[in-house]
Structure formats: C-alpha cells, structure tokens
Design brief:
With 270 residues, the chain is mainly alpha-helical. It is 71% helix and 0% strand. Helix 4 (75-95) runs parallel beside helix 7 and helix 7 runs antiparallel to helix 10. The radius of gyration is 20 Å and the shape is globular. The two termini are 32 Å apart.
C-alpha cells in the first residue's frame, strides 16, 4: 500500500506543476528552430520530405510488394505508417538519459520538480508526432484511403505509447545521473530494438518458432495498431492494445517510483 501511495503522490506532484511543463514544452520547441529562417515550418518540411522519399524509393524505384493481407497497399505508405509510432518512441528514448543532466544547474541550486523534465520532452515529441501524423493522414486522403472511423484507434495507441515511454524516460533520466554510460548505451539499444520490431519487414516473415517471443515486444503492437488504424487493411487487435497499455502502466509505475527514490540524491551528485 505504501508503494501505491508513493506512486500517486509522485503523479500528483507532476500534475501540480503542469504550468511549468507547458512553459518548458514551448521553450523546447523554440530552441529546436531558433535562428533558422523557416523556424517551426521545419517540423512540417521534415516529415513531408521523409514521406515523399520513402514513397519514391520503395514504390516507384524498388517497387516492393506486400503480402495479400495488406491488399494493394503501397509499401512506402505501409512503411511510413509503421515508422510514425517508432519515431516518437525512439526520440523520447534517446533524449531521456539527458533530461535531468541538461538542467543540472537548476536542480543543484534550488528545489526544482525534476520529475517534469522527461514529461516535457515527451510532450514536445508528441506535438511533432501529431504534425507528422496530420500530414500523413492528408497524404492518405489524397490517395483515396477510407480512414473513418478506424483512424480513431490511433488515440488509444498513442496514449499507450506515451505511458510506456514516459515510464522508461523517468527511469533512464534518474539512473543516468549516477551511471553516465546509460546515455551511450541507450543509442545502441534503440537501434537493436528497431530491427527487432517489424517495421521494415512484415510480421509474417518472422519464423513461426519466434512469433511468441516477438509478441512480447510492446512496440510490435504499437506499430501494428497504427497500421491497422491508418491503412484499414487489417483488424485492430484488442489484445495487442491491452498488452501495450498494461505493459506501459507497469513501466510507468516502476519508472515513477525509481525516479522518486533517486531524486533526493540528485543535487549531491550533480
């Protein structure tokens, strides 16, 4: 019971500082594009350029075809639908080890709610993700995809991904204060995780003997959920969404408690 009370008190402290989170998110987005001529418009140009490149390379030049379960879906579009949730996840993962270290001066000089730092990174990443998602949905509409109402399933999958990666972010940002190698290791780990997730290859190519093991990967269900919601060629698997959400909630609790436990020692180490 004490663990549950500690976790909810931690979440409450985050909620009480929501105004600071908003300010930090705005600052984070501004810092990304400060000094550039086009400014925030780069957040539109980047995903649009990526979408056009994938479409041209994989569909026009290589002409890669998918299995019958995806009908006549273009490979470049199928690939981009899977990359959308992964890009959000990978961005937060790779930034999370430095979330506390980047603000070490604030933490060492004053009582600062450092638990909001990973959440601010997540919120900024979600904003960029939504911009890319809107552009991609517009692209699908131009190509005649019937999105409604299946596209609404994006929302619970996005929520589950956010919960999952926030828990990881709290854990990594706290541990990296004491074990600085985590910041280096996580980049390699994310690359390995990427190739163990069926993003560039369909799931049916995975050997049958490994299908159960692959199903333990929560990001597999996130990628498949996005593809089902956006492309409408496969069914939404409630089991996959439930697994992703429950796994995310467990990770959120573990990450939050880890951060709360280590936070009092931050000022001494920094």
């Amino acid at each position: 019971m004490q663990i549950i009370r500690d976790f909810f008190s931690f979440i409450l402290s985050v909620y009480k500082n929501s105004y600071m989170i908003r300010s930090m998110v705005i600052r984070d987005i501004r810092m990304r594009y400060i000094g550039s001529f086009l400014g925030v418009f780069w957040s539109i140009i980047h995903p649009l350029t990526q979408l056009m490149i994938y479409y041209f390379v994989f569909s026009v030049i290589l002409k890669i075809k998918l299995g019958p379960e995806y009908g006549e879906t273009n490979f470049g579009i199928w690939l981009m639908a899977g990359l959308l949730p992964w890009t959000l996840f990978a961005e937060v993962m790779t930034r999370s080890p430095g979330a506390v270290l980047e603000q070490s001066s604030l933490i060492s000089m004053m009582v600062f709610p450092s638990e909001i730092l990973p959440l601010a990174h997540l919120a900024a990443a979600v904003i960029n993700h939504l911009i890319g998602l809107i552009i991609f949905i517009g692209f699908l509409l131009v190509f005649g995809y019937n999105l409604w109402p299946k596209v609404l399933w994006i929302l619970p999958f996005l929520l589950a991904i956010g919960i999952f990666v926030l828990g990881i972010s709290w854990m990594l940002s706290a541990l990296n204060v004491f074990l600085r190698d985590i910041g280096q290791i996580i980049g390699v780990f994310v690359q390995i995780w990427f190739f163990l997730t069926p993003i560039f290859y369909p799931r049916h190519l995975i050997p049958e003997s490994l299908q159960g093991l692959y199903s333990l990967n929560p990001m597999l269900h996130a990628v498949e959920g996005y593809r089902a919601a956006l492309l409408g060629k496969t069914d939404i698997h409630i089991f996959g969404l439930s697994y992703l959400l429950l796994f995310g909630l467990a990770t959120l609790a573990l990450g939050g408690l880890t951060f709360k436990k280590l936070k009092p020692a931050f000022a001494d180490v920094l």
